[in-house]
Amino acid sequence: MTSMAFLDLAGVGFTYPGWPPVVRDVDWALGEGEFHGLVGRSGSGKTTLLKLAAGLLQPDTGQIALQGRRGIAPGPDLGFVFQSPTLLDWQRVIDNVLLPVSLTQRPTPRHVAHAEGLLAQLGLSTHARHYPRQLSGGQQSRVALARALVLEPRLLLLDEPFAALDAITREELQTDLLRMCAERRTTVLFVTHDIGEAVWLADRVAVMDRGRIVDDVVVDLARPRTPAMRTGPAFNRLCERLRGAMDLATA
Amino acid sequence: MTTAPLASRTTIARTAAAALLLATLLLVWEASARYLGLSALVLPAPSAVAKALWAGTRSGYFWPHLQATSIELLLGLASGCLLGFVSGVAMGEFAPLRRLLMPYVVTSQVVPKLALMPLFIVWFGFGLTSTVVITALICFFPLLESTLTALRQVDPQRLELFRMLGATRRQTLVRLKLPAGLPVILAGLRVAVVLALVGAVVGEFIGANRGLGALIIAAQGTMDTPLMFAVLVQIALLGLLIYGLTLALERKLLQPYTDAA
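^ Those are the sequences you sent over. The predicted structure of the assembly is below.
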């Protein structure tokens, strides 16, 4: 790991006016190319922390630096996947994927080819000309992932992107996500309330409770991850450890 | 049996039922007018109405009136809808403007607009302009309301997505808010179209000597009830035509939202 963290949060705090602080004094460093999970109960401040990392919110206290640059702003270096696919229903799949491009310039044939390549990698080649409503929930989530990756961002932020999917589709998408991010060496911050999902995906899993990061666990499972690992003793031990950290924090 | 012939057979049956109902109604009307001894002044028989309609159409008597009403309708509809849409966008995008202007807009709408017609005659004279202004005023509000509603009910996550992608305010309006709100805006247009015909015809009652509304008043003056019915038939047909065109436009514009292909 390099001496300087890729994404560095130092003493970050955030408060919505009129409410108790949502994020308090968070110090957290993400190494380049690492996959970080962030788990916590509903209302623990995970999504707010993710929005701070995305530059959608500005911290009241502390600093956030991306590759040593202070102050983070939305831009092509950042990809974001929301809880729901948030596709534009009136545009075809390919145009949805190209949205980040078409907001800055008219997409060139090279852009289109790149977007089609992403769709192909996600098994959606035949759906490029379809509208989002003609796709299943899992396929729509894949389109949202392709859209987030179309500008080849260095940092990908995901906010419980697979929470609404059935268990099997969710596992397929987890596999796709790992593969796509490993190929691009994308640094990932993945927010979820599902401990098992976080452990299976991530290199490190942080636990958040009432605005603070209370634990940060290294996941020492081998890569590439396999479905069999989901039931192995090492996996279960890590899940128990994280579960324990969440209970301890709440107690 | 396949489903296609079944479906077409249902359509035929439905059309036949509708035609049968219309024929029955016309027959009952004709019979009552003939055998109940009702004066043609009160309720003319459909045959008398048809005769009046035919005579007026053949002689070209209706034509200038139909033309006047159509022009007023289209001009009023276009200007009122455009103004309503633009104001809706301006007020939807700039909250201070909305807070400032909304009381005036609401006040202008709770005043019965036809009560303003005598004033408009003083301002714009007797005829086309006054009727266009009243029609536009009537169309303005549904478009303003629907545009405002459409712009304000955009999904917050999609707005965040556009912020995340560094979209400008104009891009967010043109590429997200307006397309997302298009079905709601078009629903406002449908309401405006129906109201516009009412506005044009009733405006002519008071402020014009040409147009289908003015013709009804003239027919009333000469106690020519068959003529009055003949004009009503034309108003109904004009209304159905413009409503049908609006539906076709809506279908065309909403194709990407509903198309299965």
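The longest strand of chain A covers residues 7-14. The domain at 1-77+154-251 of chain A is CATH 3.40.50.300 (Rossmann fold).

Shout if you want it in another format.
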